[in-house]
Amino acid sequence: MHVLKLWHALSLLALTLPSTTLAAVLAIDYGADFIKASLMKPGVPFDVLLNKDSKRKIQSSVAWKNGDRIFGSDAFNMASRFPSDSFSSVKLLQAAPFDSEAVSYYKSISPAELVETPRKTVALKRSDGTEFSVEELIGMQFSYIKGLAETLAGEKVYDTIVTVPPYYSQFERDAVADAIEVAGLRTLALINDGTSVAVNYAMTRSFPTPEYHVLYDAGASSIRATVAQFSTDHKVSPPGTQITVTGVGYDRQVGGIELDRRLREILVDKFVAKHQKDVRKDKRGMAKLWKEAGRVKAILSANSDAVSTIESLAFDIDFKSKVTRAEFEEACGDLKGRYAQPILDAVKNAGLTMDNITSVIFTGGATRTPMIQTAVKAAVGDDKIALNVNADEAAVLGAALHGASLSRQFKTKDIKVTDISVHDIQSSYFASAPSTNGKPRTITTNLFPAGSKVGTKKTLTFKRTEDFDIAFDYKDEVAPGFPKRMLEVEISGVSEALGNLTERGATDPVVKATVSLSQSGFISVTEAIAHGEIKDESLTGKLKGLFGGGSSSSEEDTQTEENTPPRETESDTSSSSASASASSSSASPSASPETKKAAKELSTIHLNATVHFISSAPMSLEQKQASRSRLRALDAEEAAKYRKEEARNTLESYLYHLRDLLDEENKDTPFKQCSQPSERDALLVKMEDTFEWLHDRADYAETSQFLDKRNALEALERPIIHRYQEIEAFPQALNNSQMWNWSTRLFLQEARQNLTAEQEADLPSKWTKEELDALEKTLKEHETWLNIWVEKQKSVKSNEDPVIETTEMKARAKVLETQLQKLWKRKVPKVKKTSTATAATATSEASESAKADGAGSNESAPEKEGIPEAEIPQDQEPLQSPKPHDEL
Ligand SMILES: *[C@@H]1O[C@H](CO)[C@@H](O)[C@H](O)[C@H]1NC(C)=O
Ligand SMILES: *[C@@H]1O[C@H](CO)[C@@H](O)[C@H](O)[C@H]1NC(C)=O
Ligand SMILES: *[C@@H]1O[C@H](CO)[C@@H](O)[C@H](O)[C@H]1NC(C)=O
Ligand SMILES: *[C@@H]1O[C@H](CO)[C@@H](O)[C@H](O)[C@H]1NC(C)=O
Ligand SMILES: *[C@@H]1O[C@H](CO)[C@@H](O)[C@H](O)[C@H]1NC(C)=O
Ligand SMILES: *[C@@H]1O[C@H](CO)[C@@H](O)[C@H](O)[C@H]1NC(C)=O
Ligand SMILES: *[C@@H]1O[C@H](CO)[C@@H](O)[C@H](O)[C@H]1NC(C)=O
C-alpha cells in the first residue's frame, strides 16, 4: 500500500507540470486506426518514431495478454482470440456521452463491452471486470509512445503536441489533453491536423505570390478539408512564411472505418448466406472479419476483386469468398456524394471558389481508396489533385515542426500559423433587469462565430451589481448526442468590489470579463475585473486625464502570444496579469463605452471567476491523478514482472553455464586449470542446491531471491575468474613495467651525458643532477620490487591466487612513468634575452600523463621532440587494455 502512496506522490509531481522547459518535443498524430509520432530533439535525426518492430505507424490499440498490456498490431490482432480484452479505435469515443450516437456506432464496429463512467462518458470493460476510461486507454497508448520516444532521446520527454481534427469540440480537446496528462506528458499544444499538414507542406516550399491549397484528409474516422493560404515574405531575412487557415469542411461520419464496416457487412452477409449461421453473435468471428475487411479493402484499392479466406471463422467453419470492387462500391453508393463535399464546404467557408485553389493535397489512409479519389477528382478536376506529401506522415511531421517552433528551443524555418475555430461559440447570461413581463431575460451573443481566429481574446463588459454567471455554448450540436453547453463561469465578489469603487467615488463602475479562445481551441475566462473611473481631482490626475492614457475603444480582438498553457488547467480564478490589453466588444447591450484610462490602477479590482462544468466535464485534477496512479501502478507491476522473469532466466542460464564448466568431460579448460578441487566441489554443491530450489520454488520466489542465489554462486566462482584474468593480464603488465624500466634507464644515461657536456660548455640544462638522481632512485626501487615479486610469482601455480596483482604492477610503473615524463617534457631553457615566458608556460602546461594516455591533444605536441622514437625499443610499446574474459 505504501508503494501506491509513493506513486500517488510522484504523480502529483508529474501533474504540477515542471516549469523548466525541456528540450525534446514529442508530436503525436493520434488517429482512430494508427498512431504516428515524431520526436524533435537536438542531435536526434528528425523522423517518424519507430516502434520496437521498426513500424512507422502503430495501430491505435491496447490489449491484455497474460495479464500484461500490449500495444500496436499485436494488440489489434489479439481481438480475434480475446475480443473482450483488445481495444481499438477508441478515439471514436473521446468525450462521447454514453448515450450519444458515437457510442452506438462504436458498438457496431467493436465487440468491446462499454460501460458508463460517473462523468457520463465511456469506459471499456475487460473480461476480468476491470474498467478503463477512454482517457486512460488513450493515456496508456500515449505513455507507450512516450516510452519509445524516451528510449530514442535518452532522456525524459514531456512536451507534447497532438493533432486533432479541426471540428473537435472543447469536450474532445479536453479528452485529448486529459489523456496526455494521464500519460505523464504535458500538453504543449493541440493542432488541427489539416493545419499540421499545411506546415509540413510549407516546410520545403516558398510562395512568392500567395497561393491557396486544400489539405484534404480522408482518415479512419472522418473526412476533413482545410483551405489555407500560403505566402512567403522575401523582404525579411530569413524569409518567413505565413499560413492562414481560411475555411474548413468536414464529415464526421465518413471515413476508412465506415468503409471497413460496410465491407465487413458484405462478408457477414456472404457467410450467413452460405452457412445459414449468424456470425454476428460470435465476437471472435466478428473480430476476425473486422481485420479481414481492412485487408480486403486494401486489396480492392489495387485490384478489381479479392478473395477472402479465414480458417475457422466461427462455428468451426472455414470461410472463403470472393468480393469484387464493384460490390464494395455499390455497398457504399450512398456515400458517394459525401467524399468531396468537405472540400466544397471548406472553399465556400473561405469565401473562395475552386478557381482560387492551386491544388488539393491528399493525406490520410482513405485517400488510397479508388472511389474516394474518383469522387474528389470529379468534383475538383484531375489537375488539382496533388499527391506530393506523404499521406501517412505529413501531419505528424508538420505537428513536430510546429511544436518545435512553439517551444522556441529550435531553429526552424519561420512559419507562422493562423488557424480558425469551426463552431459558433455563444456566451449568454441573464440580463440584470428582467423583461417587462417579469421573467429573466437571457442575453445571448455569438461571441466567437465559426471562422474566428484562435489565439484571440474578447472582453465582455457588464453593468452588474451582484454575482452572476456567464455560460458558453456551442450554437449547434457539435456531434449527435453531445451537449451544447461547454462551461459556466461564476463571477463573484461583484457587490463588494463595486461598493468599494463607488465609495471611492467611481462613476458607473462596470464588470469586465476577458474570454480567451486559445491557440489550441479552448475557451476560458482568463480575467474578470470590476472597473470604474475615479475622478482624480489633483493636478496630476487632471493632466493625466488630458494627455495620458488615451481612450481605447479599439474594436478588434487582441492577438495573444500563446506561451500560456493551451487550456486553463484547473479551477480557474481570475488571473493577476494587468488588464492593459483588454479591448471592448460590443457584445453586451449594457456595455459602456471605454472610459479614460487615467488612474486605472486605482480603479480596477480583480474578481473571482469560478468554472462550473454542467455536462461532459473534463477530468478533475483528482481524477487525473487517480488515473495517472493507476497507469503508473500497471507500469510498475509489469516492470516488476519483467524484472523477475529476467532474474529467473539469468539465474537459470547461469546454472547451465556452471554445469558446463564443472562437467567432468571438459578437462584442462582454463576454469579447471585455475580452480582447486575443493572450490569446484563447493560450487557443485551450491549449483545442485540451486537447481533444486529453482525447480521446486521458483514459481513463488521473489526477484531478490533469484538475484541472491546468483550472487552466492558468483561469489564462489569469482576467485577462479580472478586468477584466470590475472594470468591473462600478467605478460602485458610485465611488458609495460619493463618498458618503463628500460626507457628510464636509457633516458638517464643520455641525460647525464648531456648534463655533463652542458656544464662543461657552461650552457643551461634542462635538468639538475638532483632531479636525475631522484629519478634513478625511483627506477631502482621499481626494478628491485619487480625483480623480487616476479620471481615469487613464477612459483605460483595457476590454481593459486597470484602474489602480485597486475593492478599494482601498473600503479608502480605509473609512478616511474610520471616522474620520467616530467623531466622528459621539459624544454631547453632559452639563453637569457629571449623571453622566459615560453619556457615557463611550456613547463607548467606539460600535462604529465598526456603522452601515456595517448591523448592526441595539441598540448602534448611540443613534447613530441622530447624523447626520440629510437629510445623505445620497438617491441616494448605498451599494450592496449586487456581483452574481455567472457570465454571462461
Ligand atoms: C478568386 O478568384 C476570383 C475569380 O478568378 C477572383 O476574382 C478573386 O480575386 C480570387 N480571390 C482571391 C482571394 O484570390
Ligand atoms: C475569491 O476566491 C478566494 C479563494 O477561493 C476566496 O478566498 C475569496 O474570498 C474570493 N473572493 C471573493 C470576492 O469572492
Ligand atoms: C478598496 O480596495 C482596496 C484594495 O483593493 C483597499 O485598499 C481599500 O481599503 C478598499 N476600500 C474599501 C472602502 O473597501
Ligand atoms: C630493467 O632494465 C635494466 C636495463 O635495461 C635490465 O638490466 C633489468 O633486467 C630490467 N629489470 C627488470 C626487472 O626488467
Ligand atoms: C641530449 O643532447 C642531444 C644533442 O643536443 C639531443 O639530441 C638529445 O635529445 C638529448 N637527450 C636528452 C635525453 O635530452
Ligand atoms: C589546441 O590548443 C588550443 C589552445 O589551448 C586550443 O584552443 C585548441 O582547441 C587545441 N586544439 C586541439 C585540436 O586540441
Ligand atoms: C611486449 O609488447 C610488444 C609490443 O606489443 C610485443 O611485441 C612483445 O611481444 C611484448 N612482450 C612480451 C614479453 O609480452
From TrEMBL:
GO MF annotations in UniProt: ATP binding; ATP-dependent protein folding chaperone
Domain of life: Eukaryota
Gene3D superfamilies: 1.20.1270.10, 3.30.30.30, 3.30.420.40, Actin, Chain A, domain 4, Substrate Binding Domain Of DNAk, Chain A, domain 1
Comp. bias regions, Low complexity: 574-593, 834-849
Residues annotated as signal peptide: 1-23
Keywords assigned: ATP-binding, Chaperone, Endoplasmic reticulum, Nucleotide-binding, Signal
GO cellular component: endoplasmic reticulum chaperone complex
Protein name: Actin-like ATPase domain-containing protein
Organism name: Tetrapyrgos nigripes
